[in-house]
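ASSEMBLY PREDICTION REQUEST
Request ID: AP-0331
Submitted by: J.K., bench scientist
Number of chains: two
Total residues: 718
Priority: normal
Notes: Please return the full assembly, not individual chains.
Input sequences:
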Amino acid sequence: MYRSHVLVCGGTGCTSSNSQAIIEALETQIAEKGLSEEIKVIRTGCFGLCALGPIMIVYPEGSFYSQVKVEDIPEIVEEHLLKGRIVTRLLYDETVTETEVKSLNDTKFYAKQERVALRNCGVIDPENIDEYIAYDGYQALAKCLTEYTPEQVIQVVKDSGLRGRGGGGFPTGLKWSFTAANQADQKYVVCNADEGDPGAFMDRSVLEGDPHCIIEAMAICGYATGATEGYVYVRAEYPIAVNRLQIAIDQAKEYGLLGKNIFDSGFDFDLHIRLGAGAFVCGEETALMTSIEGNRGEPRPRPPYPAVKGLFGKPTTENNVETFANIPQIILKGADWFASMGTEKSKGTKVFALGGKINNTGLVEVPMGTTLREVIDEIGGGIPNGKKFKAAQTGGPSGGCIPASLMDTPIDYDNLTAIGCMMGSGGLIVMDEDNCMVDIAKFFLDFTVDESCGKCTPCRIGTKRLREMLEKITDGKATLKDLDELEELCYYIKENSLCGLGQTAPNPVLATLKFFRDEYIAHVVDKTCPAGVCKKLVKYEIVADACKGCTLCARKCPVGAISGTVKNPHEIDANKCIKCGVCIDSCKFGAIIKK
Amino acid sequence: MKTLAELMAIKEATQQKMTVREDTGDDATRIVVGMATCGIAAGARPVLNAFVDEVAKRNLKGVTVSQTGCIGMCQYEPIVEVIQPGKEKVTYVKMTAEKVAKVVNDHIVNGNPVAEYTVSAIK
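STATUS: Completed
Returned structure:
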């Protein structure tokens, strides 16, 4: 029996800020103090508060240490673990008040969150099936196999109102019933873990923090739809997720929770992992299945839909990781419980990956219908450096942006669609006044041009032309006629592309055109970039009165564009200047300005 | 594994090992062992571990065992405080691992503090 458990985050975020070394240091020093029999160190999945990583929590006190360094470990072991004195200086400052130490759940970051898909992340040891079982794991599968018919399982999922969390928002129960209705000698379940949106990492975190819940949910889906085999398609860039999922599958097989005759019900289910090479198009369901089959990942026209002719030509149900992560809880707590959260047509919760210009970068899960303002200002802790919020990009390169004027829109599938945005997988990139919206649109187009698989012309050539037009705008060479053509081409690509990639690729352009047309106009008519981002439209100048002639900028300039003599005002040669900004950063007198 | 009973058996066994991680809230009974240098020197660690084991053995819910620093009566270490909501704090002094079972049984389970071990018993 251990008197204390030390949980250290082993998600990708904290691992990249050295949590592995922290775990090793902890274990060595605990052993040196002879505490190995008393204190257990556990590597968990993501806590969500990635901005403050590496994160550590010590029980029974529940002390939440943030931004822990290897050098801090001797103090934690000596003071806290040995002598019971909490190391206050390392506590997450939100939890420390003058009089007491608050519980983590009372902090702003966690108080408004409702964790369903992420409920075990940062709580259990993902490499220990027993801990998953201790938190009700595999009970939902047992309930389905022993108490429910497949039809009843589908009915529960339908009644819950769960919709696909990958972005499309298709009702999950309905999707399952389509596959169930088709007769075939073999059916499949596929889990889409090919999380490709820049800035989205919730699927990775679920697989890293709670891999067994995906296995359990896929088995339930298999039972409901009549499938006996499943594939998890996960990107090879997620090595920790792949490793933990493999460990989880092996443990489940050992316990007989995967394999033949599960819970003596006659139901067989087996699971395989397939690694994707990181192509964005493989997140599209038909391309994903083509890739699993061993072919080049390209989409094909639908119908036939996967429910009729999917993987290896057999009826297939394909769901996203986060969708699956909700299933065991829905079965155990009931459809009504799930449907009690959220809005009229969007039930349950949604996980968002907060990134960009926001204080609490990380992973949050909130009930559907929470406003963007709550997510960004309260949970996210607002914008750093006192800057003003400009817009949030949702749904990555397939989505759009929400401007400051719409911050109070309750976030759900239908509201976002209504304002010309989309839920997408849940990446939420926050932008402040220093971001140029035309440049953002160009950034996402760069991504889709790279990632277009090339099978259909509207997407392959259309996105390339679209990007060229944006470049013309940011270079200050465009006319108002170009703006009209830009918009026309957007709609053409949307209407004529083969798959979701092309159909949604123009969205970032359309959304920024809709909400930030004035910025486009400024680029086209006034030839300026209001945010000062687009290099071709920005000019650096030295204000002669403010310049003391210290020569620092001239020495720092990498291209020798600054000339002048000591104690006399300097000058920038616009023809040589590459607009890198080094001079502004180095000037101690604020004498250099960007126009 | 073929039955729900087998699953539940694993669940219960593991839950017992994980009670330390439960958020017991404000109505928990807290057993606090003084673990400053004086406490450790006087043998507080075996006492602490005996409490952890005894609480686990009896599968007691809502009881946390934790440490604290020096309480200030170093000559009476190992000192253990039992704090229960709505009741006066009870302070045990010169504790040993052998005395632990009686404290858990009489005080924690049955609600009768073991007067002879407490600080007020010392003249």
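REVIEWER COMMENTS: The first strand of chain A starts at residue 4 and ends at 9.
SIGN-OFF: pending second reviewer
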